[in-house]
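Data card: per-record layout.
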Amino acid sequence: MRSKLSAWKYVRNNKGPCAVMITALSLSFMAMYMLYALLQTSIESFAPLIYKLSTKISYASITGSSYGLDVNGYESYEELSDAYDAKQEQLMESLKARDGIDDVYFTQILMCTYNSVIGSFTFETPLLEADRIPAFLDHMDAKLVEGRLPSGDGEMLVDETIMKNSDYELGGYFMSDWYGETFRIVGVISSDCLISVGTPMGYTNSGWYIVVLNNEDTADLHRILTEEGIALKDSDEVIDHPEYLATYDESVIGPIVTAVSGIMLTVMVILTIMVLIAYVSFMRNRISEYCLYASIGYGRSEIYGMILREMLILFGLGSLAGLAVSLIGGLLIHEFLIVPAGLIGSLIYPGQIFRILAIYLFIMGMLQLPVLVCISGIRTIDAVETQ
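The structure for this 387-residue chain is written out next.
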């Protein structure tokens, strides 16, 4: 009785070529997985700012025309300014009376930058009087974990994640590249929102804004201001949860998804070409072997089955090796790069693993064409010798 054609024997007896193929597949797996993981870190790192911070605090800078003020209707700038202040104070009191809004301030803000693997996100940091900071921390679900609360001018509390991310130290200066040695860090806070807060230092700031301490139900400040009768214009600036979501989708998720798709497509095309060339070379070198199998009674379907099993072994070993290397590399990068930099990233991305396996299945499907062409040309040794 004939034995079944062994696929493993070829792999075992041709370690060099098979090792090259397995290595190429495993390195391709690792490249696709690791690049995805690094890009995904940016999406995950910015998520607390988008889905937590922006549901707790909003900002607005509204022009006089949106309050219905006519510049030409006042004899002096002082009268116009007084009318503007009265309109703004009326709006703030009305906002404070709404359910879901804890407090409203008109105050200076600073900007804070959070850097990820790819790109950075700049967001607002309010400056409040020292006696208002404890209530602000309560609203933001933040607690002091090191240092002290601000008591004088130009003192900052900075989130511990931002401390790592920007390589700050207690006693150092906040955003010194922008504001110089003006705002000293006196305390470190822990919060899911990555929020920082400080006290003013004269008029060093990035603008004056209405600051609204809201919750998820009142996070759409555009809608609320419209309900308050404010006819918002392009010259107004409203920074709220919908605005953060739009920026996140446009500036973070969109480009990263495009980059991931481009990388996957490029690797798939290159890998498909490389594997096709390698397999055609394999089969050309083994034509006499296939003809010998046919001569001793093995049918084309049996030879095709052997080639398919060899392919499964090579792709299987390449995928397993690539997965192992990717997971180990991902763990090392997470522990020694992501966490120390104050970033957020998952240890395992099952979706990407399945996408890579799907690409490998696609490549195996593409390989069937040259395999079938090769099988159709197999003849017995007698037939070859009569030519």
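Known properties of this structure: The first strand starts at residue 57 and ends at 61. Confidence is low (pLDDT under 50) at residues 383-387.

See the next section for split statistics.
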